[in-house]
Amino acid sequence: MTLPTTLDEAVAALTAMPAAVPVAGGTDLMAAVNSGQLRPAALVGLGKISEIRGWQYLDGHALLGAGLTHARMGRPDFAALIPALAAAARAAGPPHIRNAGTLGGNIASAAPTGDALPVLAALEATLIVAGPGGARREVPVSHLLAGMDVLRPGELIGYVRVPLLHAPQVFLKATGRTGPGRAVASVALVLDPARRGVRCAVGAIAPMPLRPLEAEQWVAQLIDWDNNRAIVPEALSAFGEYVAAACIPDAARGEDGTVPPLPPAVLHLRRTVAALARRALGRALS
Amino acid sequence: MSNEAATVQTADAATEEETGPRRGLGASLPAADARAKTEGTFPYAADLWAEGLLWAAVLRSPHPHARIKSIDTTHAREMPGVRAVVTHEDVPGTPVLGRGTADRPVFASEVVRHHGEPLAAVAADHPDTARMAAAAVIVEYEVLDPVTDPEQAFEAEPLHPDGNLVRHIPLRHGDADAVGEVVVEGLYRIGRQDPAPIGAEAGLAVPRPDGGVELYLASTDPHGDRDTAAAAFGLQQDQVKIVVTGVPGATADREDQSFQLPLGLLALKTGCPVKLAATREESFLGHTHRHPTLLRYRHHADAEGKLVKVEAQILLDAGAYAGTSSDALAAAVAFACGPYVVPNAFIEGWAVRTNNPPSGHVRGEGAMQVCAAYEAQMDKLAKKLGLDPAEVRLRNVMATGDVLPTGQTVTCPAPVAELLEAVRDFPLPPLPKDTPEDEWLLPGGPEGAGEPAAVRRGVGYGLGMVHMLGAEGADEVSTATVRVQNGVATVLCAAVETGQGFSTLARQIVQETLGIDEVHVVPVDTDQPPAGAGCRGRHTWVSGGAVERAAKMVRTQLLQPLAHKFGMSTELLQITDGKITSYDGVLSTTVTEAMDGKELWATAQCRPHPTEPLDDTGQGDAFVGMAFCAIRAVVDVDIELGSVRVVELAVAQDVGRVLNPAQLAARIEAGVTQGLGAALTENLRTPRGLIRHPDLTGYALPTALDAPDIRIVKLVEERDVVAPFGAKAVSAAPVVASPAAIASAVRAATGRPVNRLPIRPQAAVVTSN
Polar residues composition bias: which ranges (chain B) (predicted)? Predict the structure, then answer.
């Protein structure tokens, strides 16, 4: 176990020991270690790297350190900046998990139920990845989650660049219980008034967050951006159905030309996504 | 001045009244170990240590059903640090175990019958080495198709030499041709609840120089476990000693024997102490679960809603081994109609073997599953007749003197109507619109997706009954010893403190009888006489009764010489605060003086009146006593997402007599919350016989946010004359009634049938199409 104090030291440590595994909050990693599924040869602890534990402003964006904990992101000052990410952080489990788990860890684990992921997808966040020799490269979060661009040996997620949109954002999560639990489905929705856009991502129902792009464009033109962002109420339900059908399509047409019904559990999931998307848009525009 | 003094006195008197007595029966005496448990210094089995100990690991089957072609332990034995590997070939004695029916091999030899069945165990000098060595045991399997649907078990090839049918009870009571004007039918499914003890299984086995072995375990049935262990080890009973360590949670049979026996075998083989601390996954794979149950019901009633006949078919999935399934089936069949007067009942009950993980004793076994079904039927009946759900229940509730479908007359207090009326008439919790200043916790929780406009509130009822003590002729007996020396009393009784509060109760009984404040309860081991397993309220009744008798005998020994000296009978003397005084207060002495340096001992037994097995038609006086509980549930349902939040559970319970108010309230709250888990989230899923998500993230126990406000509305103290102190067991009845009440409330909120537990969100969604 090594405890570097800068990002570049951590990268150097990982490069020197290719078998080492980086660990931040350890809320996913240590569970795998304890259950014997993972036996890392060495650990590189990221907890002492102060440069990635805060955030800074950069040309209308926030540069979030990958070591930000969920507890920190859930606080009011952060919520004023990026409300949906704060809401996702507050919903990300019981307090002891939120105190330890980090933003970078949520991305690196890339669990389908990672609560920050749909928010980052909706915000079209970009990762700043630190590589050997002080190298920095940018990777869109969706590329990493889709496996189009993976972290190379020795690389670490250093920062997450998120646009500051100065408009309502919503994150909603259905768990099926009142206490903390993993998402059955989640929806992140952000408004981008400067570009008159709505961006939405659905989490937990697929290996990575899904973006219903057509539904976003369709609903953006129904919003009266100059008049308090007004919208006809029927459009909210239609948007919900649109998002749900885009993310959970009907089964393929059978040979006789009929569409077989979805299994009840899938149908319920589709209804859940529709309700979440409708509620999210309603709250963002209210 | 005098006025002020008077005021102070009144205030003192008021305080005394509010706080109740500080000792003896009826006092809220705190548990002696409460502080240590809160501070984390209380030693549980997982904290044990011995010089030079080895670590054990158990190899478990990854298949639910397979023929074992060969087991090769060569590689495991050759690993550095490995000291012993044991398989079925190394069991010197009786190679089967199991509570109730012993039909479960210590290690599988020819066939594996469920996922997680033990095949071999390893002792090594490090837990990781032991685990890796267990994984290095090469087992060649011929994988077989698992039988996972209990309905298929009747037709399937026998999974076990004893066949697939564990027990069949065809209960026939009354006139089969009776028909009612109104008939309601339903099919209900109850899931697999896991006891999920917070402390996973752990233990330490220490070999003895005489060839015996001592097992340090969190057993709830030390003598039963000792007998099984001695038989398996091929030893005499006095060569095996079980020392009970701190029990970290026991809502079911604790410390599964499939952990204990490998541990003892390894200690005997290596001659070293051997420790095992199960991981959460092993814990889920190793211990038994609540019986998943399929129930089919038909209720006949007249136009006024009075029940005429109940027909039911009840199928319990025993899993791979019978264990205690026979007892669970007896409870399910006997209480299939609930605490209602039913003149004609025809109940077919079966318990069958499958390749699912074995089921066993969990609080309220059998009774909880049928309660969910018969209360759903009562809701259907109310709907069909256009009656209030509470009203249709009130028209049918039983009372003392009524007859169960088993032909047994209910002789104990059965204040069912009083309980139901108490919860029905208790004020409903305010609606959010009435208390706008309070933050409203929506279904889905804080930061959840709940939308007030989509939330519907529902109110439902559950009436549950359970039996106390072992049934059908089980010999229920407990022995206790009370010793007094130097003004301090000591209780020796092998009744295990599982968290149910027995040791606190034992202290209170001795305080009450002997007037001595300082009472200690000695830790339990099998050198003490047997007290039976800690379940079905046994210890409050049988062990509490034994402690009281022993204390009374000590009292007589203490007072006899004094009474003789004063020329009066012992009944005219009383002991309080260590002082002995006569009834008129004239004569007085201290306990220490009366003892005169002597040591007083007395041992007594308590054995309740015998019961009889259910006969070929399910008839017989099978139960010693019964307890009843009524619960009203208030739920909020988000009808679009199907998420349910239980707002409040109001409980009224038949307790006989309150012996410790604080402990009683805690037991009811714990029972209600376990029922809440069974109603909403707890279901160990086993697709194709394989346990999925054996961890506490996948298996969702209720948290503080899930738990509702629990209001104990009424405790009916009608003493049960045959029970010691007149007290009834309290833990199981709320477990039985609360799932039914919650399902009933979700039914009221959504109008959906809700015929499956736990309630899945899609069953609580209201769709327009």
Answer: 1-12
